[in-house]
C-alpha cells in the first residue's frame, strides 16, 4: 500500500531532478521511456542543457568538436518529452516536511520524488596560493573550457598542477597544440592514488617522450605575478618555474551541501543504499555525488557509466519497476596523445600486480589482485585485455596470475 501511495504522489506532484549532468539526464530520459506520465522538472546551475563532460578536456578543448556536438539531446527534445528545463537556476533548500524545493529566486517547487544529481566540483588551490590571479584555471564546465581555449596558443607556457587523469589529459592536449608544458605533482609519482607504479611509469615515459616536463614529489609553495596574472611558481624541490597560465587538477569536492542542510547523511558523498535511496523515502541520489555500498564497504565513482546506470536504476524504481541492488563493475577510460587507457574494476587495496605485454610495442595491461582474486585491470592500447578483464570481473572469474604474466599464454588458457 505504501509503495502504491508513493507512486501516486510521484505521478501527481512529479519528479524534480537537481543537477543537469549525465546522471540527471539519464534519469529523466529513462522515466519517459518507462512511460512515466507525471510532471518532470530538471534544474541545472549552468545555462546549458545536459552535455558530455569527458570531451571537454580532449576534443572540445582542441576545437575538434563543436559545442552542440556535446549536447546529450537537442534542446527541442526536452519539450517533446514534456520535461521542464530550469537552466541557470539553483536549488537553495530542500523542505522535506512539505516535499518541495526552494529556488534561488524565492519560488518553490513541489515534488513527489526528488533526485539529487548534484555532482562534484573541482577543488581549487588554497586561497593563500591562488590569491586573485585570473589565469589560474579549473576544469569542469563549458565555460571553463572556453576560457582556457583563449590561452591555448602555440609557444605559450602552461603549468599543470596535479598528476591525475585531468592533469595528464590537459598536458597532452597542450603539447599537441604546441605549448610548453610543466606538470607538477606533489606525490612521489603521477597517478599515485589511482594506479600502480607500472601504469604510472608508462604514462610518465609517454609524456616525457612527447616533451612534457614532469616534476614529481614537488609541492607548490607560492605563486607570484603582476597585473592580476601569475607568472612564477615556487616549488618545494625544483625552485622556480615560469609560465603564462596554469590549470589545476587536484581532485574534486562533492556537492553535498544541499543534502547535508536537509538532514541527509553525507560522508564522502550523499549516502544512499544499494538502490540509490537516501534515508528519506522520497529522495534519491545518483552519479558523482553518491556514496553507495560496494563489496564490503562504500565507494563513490566519477564515471559516465556510473552516472547513467544509477540514473536509470532510480528512474525504473520511480516508475514502479522492481530493481535489484546496484552492483557495478566500474569502467573508465582516458585518452592521452595516441594512447588509450581503459580500466575495468577498482584496484583499491590491491596486494599484487601482474604486468602483461601487449601485441604491439606501445601496449600492455596491468592486472590487480587482492587476496588472490582479480579486482581490476588497466589496459593500455590493448582492447582485448580490457574486454577480457571486464568479462572476468563481471563473471567473478580469477585467472591464473602466472599465465596472465606470460604473453605467450592465450587469455582462454589463463582462465
Describe this structure as you would to a colleague:
This protein has helices at residues 2-13, 22-33, 75-80, 127-130, 142-149, 165-176, 197-209, 257-261, 304-318, 383-395, 401-405, 411-414, and strands at 15-18, 40-44, 83-87, 91-95, 100-103, 108-110, 113-116, 120-122, 136-137, 157-161, 180-185, 213-216, 220-226, 229-235, 239-242, 245-248, 252-254, 270-271, 283-285, 290-294, 297-299, 331-336, 339-345, 352-357, 364-370, 373-380. The protein is of the alpha/beta class and 415 residues long. Strands 3-2-1-7-19 form a 5-stranded parallel β-sheet. Strands 9-16-10-11-12 form a 5-stranded parallel β-sheet, covered by helices on one side. Strands 22-23-26-25-24 form a 5-stranded antiparallel β-sheet. Helix 2 (22-33) runs parallel beside helix 9 (304-318). The protein is globular, with a radius of gyration of 23 Å. It starts with a helix and ends with a helix.
- Which of globular, elongated, flat, extended, rod-shaped describes the shape? globular
Contiguous runs where pLDDT drops below 50 for at least 5 residues: none
User: In total, how many beta strands?
Assistant: 26
Strand content: 25-35%
Strand order of the largest sheet: 3-2-1-7-19
Class from helix and strand fractions: alpha/beta
Summarize the structure.
This protein has helices at 2-13, 22-33, 75-80, 127-130, 142-149, 165-176, 197-209, 257-261, 304-318, 383-395, 401-405, 411-414; strands spanning 15-18, 40-44, 83-87, 91-95, 100-103, 108-110, 113-116, 120-122, 136-137, 157-161, 180-185, 213-216, 220-226, 229-235, 239-242, 245-248, 252-254, 270-271, 283-285, 290-294, 297-299, 331-336, 339-345, 352-357, 364-370, 373-380. With 415 residues, the protein is an alpha/beta fold.
